[in-house]
Amino acid sequence: MVKFYSVVFLVVLAFPIYGQTNSPKKQWFESFSIRGYTQVRYNRLLETNSKLKNEQGDRSWGENGGFFIRRMRIIFSGQINERVYYYVQPDFASSASSTGLHFGQLRDAYFDVGIDAKNEFRFRIGQSKIPYGFENMQSSQNRLPLDRNDALNSAVTNERDLGVFFYWAPANVRKLYASLINDGLKGSGDYGVFGFGAFNGQTANKPEQNNEPHIVARLTYPLQIKNQIVEMGIQGYTGNYVITTDQLSAGVKTNTNKSYLDQRIAATFILYPKPFGIQAEYNIGKGPEFNKVTDSIEVRNLHGGYITASYKKDFGQQTIIPFSRYHYYHGGKKHELDARSYHVSEFEIGVEWQPNKNFELVAMYTISERRFEDFRLQNNFQTGNLLRLQAQLNF
Fold first, then answer.
1. Quick check: 162 and 200 in contact, CB under 8 A?
2. 4-7 contacts: CB < 8 A, separation 24 or more?
3. What's the CATH architecture for 48-394?
4. Which pLDDT does position 32 carry in this prediction?
5. What's the pLDDT score for residue 10?
């Protein structure tokens, strides 16, 4: 299997050499762009329970939380060749420990290699988002709710991993994907009509732990119906996830090699906000989860999803988007301590105000019920409400 993927990798690198045309050489400053965004939050207003936490989302929830830089990202990208595009995105708001903030960490580092002249067929090589879940692939710069839903986001922490992916989309669809972002319609970006790939499976910035890559596939298509745009899709992945020593409490029981089946399938429906929008996804699968009855990590069923409703209204150069979301999840989170067991039921209502393209302000009220349990923290069920604020700079 490893030899097979090595051969594929070499073929991908060699193929674009053929069919190139002699075009004027661009100057270095014409081959890339620099952009980015920063998000600053405060989550403690109208808070009713300081024990309510969200480790995978915003860690400034609850006690000892204060003003918080959620993201500070700079994106370097460019079409450096007719067939080669690159994208590098570090984040300078990562938390290296519970006592340290604002460390630099790599989020994306990949290049796209086009197979044909229009780059309708291309390979993506490096660390990038896994094509699983519309909201997972949607940039946090564009997403309305302040955090991703637990149900699909529990599949891949930080939504990324190292791998090789094949994407195909007709030129007209790629143009449409770009317009959904540029027109402020909260698109997910261009991950093809069809995507297929292999990746390590241990999530971003972590080394591989076995010789078996995860496999993922996704099929989706946006349809224009008069003034509306509808997109429906299906995606799934399978592999084995290895729980490492640093993810385990002393005393928790595991299987012999700490390797667990990790597989899911999800369906997506999107009605882009023109002006009313709906975004809904649901996934089912199996994965590692802590069982407090046996004090062990076992492969267990998981399921959950979300639905988001929004309404986009433009006032001259300003935009206001009221929205609401309900999301639910029952299952484990493989990348957290002891594959922590979760049961989440959460309703959010908020509004995003864009006075101009460079600044956004979001206010969102959250009503939450969360059960999150591991070997050390059992019978932990927290409920509460809180008002959350975010200021975002786009540059």
1. yes
2. 5/164, 5/198, 5/213
3. Beta Barrel (2.40)
4. 85
5. 47
